[in-house]
Specification:
Chain A is built from 9 helices and 19 strands. By secondary structure, chain A is α+β, with helices and mostly antiparallel strands. The chains are: A alpha+beta (367), B mainly alpha (261).
């Protein structure tokens, strides 16, 4: 569908790329990155709104690198929506059909479908788009982007200004659009929850480069670089050194962690960061039998602090043997059952299958 | 706190009141010299009617030409990056800072160059003609037009133009169907104020076109002529007409409907 090869562009002192990306028919890719990572710049370069400094953009096998935006047949929903305030709701939605010379009957039929899909019947005859609510504007802008029947839809943080309820409704609508209409979607966001919920694949962009592309589990549980791990809020990252390589290839660390996954070219003495997500840490209860996978990486510790969030609690556990602090996340119901207080002693297990290892480069910094 | 607010507002409003009072004094002082009989008699004179018509036509023509050139020029300054843009942006303001008399002199002097002579040879004569009035007014007002329109185009969100491009518009179609409608209010205001400046233009017009009664004398130059000959009824009549036109224009600007943008 869309293939990007070694794409680079510049804006002021910021350089984007080189970026390689391949997106198949009807797929949904979210590009996740912090503000200022170059996500919007990347979309603009793909859409032809910004001149590519080098590299190529292919759409359906055609090199579109040097053709104008209107001939690329990409629909775009920007962060600020950019509805046309001089046009009414219906005129906004039909704008693309008019300029893409979509047959009038076809346009009317698509309009009907989109009004159903996005629940726009109540506002379609409104003349002043500036008087619409945030959610209504969003749905009108989405309908406008979809009416010309694009095969590619680019979304640039489209839900960032909406409250949680409306955002969730529109996210569900987007999944339906992707499935029902078969539109290939490239969606950039800084919202991790949104990226993981919507994207079949997720690409993490940091400082103008795609640092990792993969499915949800790959990105969430196996970060390939420390900046990706830090950005994805991995709380438990520990600098250590490879002490030994086991027969099964797993790594034993100097800080007593064993069974950590290996990486190409792993050697004893390598400086590494080993990490685990806080919700993957298991609290061992003495009165319950434990399976073989929980008999490794057992550490005794003391609850130093308890942080309460909306639906979860985080226990800050100080490991007795090393003095290292480990964040352990528990759902509220589990926290109620266990009833931990500051100062309580407990045993935690860093499940080996949930560990990740990154070989440290000179400039890497763990948090 | 409330008392301090009141004092602050009062301090801000006082200069405004003084200014309005001063303007009312200027306009009102005309009534001491104004008589309806003189006014009707003066307005019936052929050369005054000619001056009114000449001013209206020349101001309209120079405004049309200025705006036609200023729209693309202002858009280029607002949207397109090109080498030397800052220099051009500054240079274009020259007619705004130069006194109109000097501008008129520049136009006259340029007519004495080889290009001017060439144009004269093929029958295009500007000094002391109707075309000269239009050129003089155009030279004075075009920079104002560019400046106002540039500010207008800068207020149009470029994202809307980009979305239009991605919905199938070429760059020109996007300009036509999105930028111009969104800039409509600013363009109308620019047209009206450019026209107002053109109709009141005196210095450059007198230098280039002279003040021949019934031929090249516009309303402002006719006022000058009347005053220089101490013809007070005539001067007051012309001033009243000019005030009437100016007030119409100013209220016209306020009446331009608010853009939904």
């Amino acid at each position: 569908m869309i293939r990007i090869e070694q794409l680079t562009t510049r804006q002021g002192s910021f350089t984007l790329g080189p970026i390689d990306l391949d997106l198949g028919e009807s797929s949904y890719l979210t590009i996740l990155g912090p503000s200022g990572a170059g996500k919007t710049l990347f979309l603009e370069a793909c859409m032809g709104l910004l001149t590519a400094h080098s590299g190529r953009v292919w759409i359906n096998g055609t090199d579109v690198t040097h053709i104008p935006p209107e001939q690329r047949h990409i629909s775009y929903l920007p962060q600020d929506l950019a509805l046309f305030p001089h046009l009414g709701v219906k005129e906004n939605i039909l704008f693309g059909a008019r300029h893409r010379k979509v047959d009038k009957e076809l346009a009317e039929s698509r309009l009907g479908e989109l009004l159903d899909l996005l629940d726009l019947h109540g506002i379609v005859n409104r003349h002043d788009v500036t008087s619409l609510s945030g959610g209504e504007k969003q749905r009108v802008a989405l309908a406008r982007a979809l009416l010309p029947g694009p095969r590619l839809l680019f979304l640039d943080e489209p839900f960032s200004a909406l409250d949680a309820t409306i955002r969730r409704q529109l996210q569900v609508s987007l999944r339906e659009i992707n499935r029902q209409l078969g539109v290939t979607i490239l969606h950039v966001t800084h919202d991790q929850e949104e990226a993981f919920m919507l994207g079949e694949r997720i690409a993490v962009m940091i400082a103008g480069r795609l640092r990792q592309i993969g499915d949800r589990d790959n990105i969430y549980y196996q970060p390939e670089s420390l900046d990706v791990a830090n950005f994805l809020r991995n709380q438990n990252i520990y600098d250590t050194t490879v002490a030994a390589i086991a027969a099964d290839g797993s790594l034993q660390m100097e800080n007593s962690i064993t069974g950590a996954p290996s990486y190409p070219g792993a050697q004893v003495g390598d400086h590494v960061a080993v990490g685990i997500r806080s919700e993957e840490i298991v609290i061992i209860r003495s009165n319950k039998p434990i399976g073989p996978e929980l008999q490794q990486n057992l550490f005794d510790g003391t609850v130093k602090d308890i942080l309460a969030f909306g639906g979860t609690h985080t226990l800050i556990v100080e490991v007795l043997s090393t003095g290292t602090c480990v964040d352990v996340e528990l759902p509220n119901c589990a926290m109620r059952d266990l009833g931990y207080n500051i100062g309580d002693e407990l045993q935690i297990c860093l499940r080996r299958h949930s560990l990740w290892t990154i070989k440290k480069e000179v400039n890497d910094v763990a948090v | 706190m409330l008392r301090r607010d009141t004092i602050f507002k009062g301090a801000m409003l006082l200069p405004l009141v003084v200014l309005c009072g001063y303007f009312l004094l200027l306009v009102g002082s005309q009534s001491a010299f104004f008589s309806m009989t003189d006014f009707l008699e003066q307005i019936g004179q052929k050369d005054i009617r000619s001056a009114i018509a000449l001013s209206l036509i020349a101001a309209t023509a120079s405004t049309v030409i200025a705006v036609i050139i200023a729209i693309p020029a202002a858009y280029a300054l607002a949207r397109i990056d090109f080498p030397g843009k800052r220099l051009v942006d500054t240079f274009i303001d020259l007619p705004m800072v130069l006194t109109p008399i000097a501008l008129g002199t520049l136009i006259l002097m340029s007519w004495n160059t080889s290009i001017g002579r060439l144009l004269s040879d093929i029958g295009i004569t500007l000094p002391f003609t109707f075309a000269g009035i239009i050129l003089a007014q155009f030279t004075v007002v075009v920079a104002i037009s560019v400046r106002m329109l540039k500010a207008t185009f800068e207020q149009v969100d470029p994202r809307q133009e980009q979305v239009a491009r991605l919905l199938g518009c070429s760059a020109f179609e996007s300009f036509l169907h999105v930028t111009l409608p969104l800039a409509r209010r600013g363009i109308l205001a620019a047209i009206i104020l450019t026209w107002a400046r053109a109709i009141g233009e005196f210095g450059a017009t007198v230098m280039v076109a002279g003040t021949a009664r019934g031929q090249t004398a516009t309303l402002p130059s006719s006022i000058y002529l009347a005053m220089s000959m101490a013809d007070l009824p005539r001067a007051v009549t012309l001033v009243v007409i000019l005030i009437g036109i100016s007030l119409l224009v100013l209220f016209g600007v306020r009446m331009v409907p608010e853009s939904r943008g």
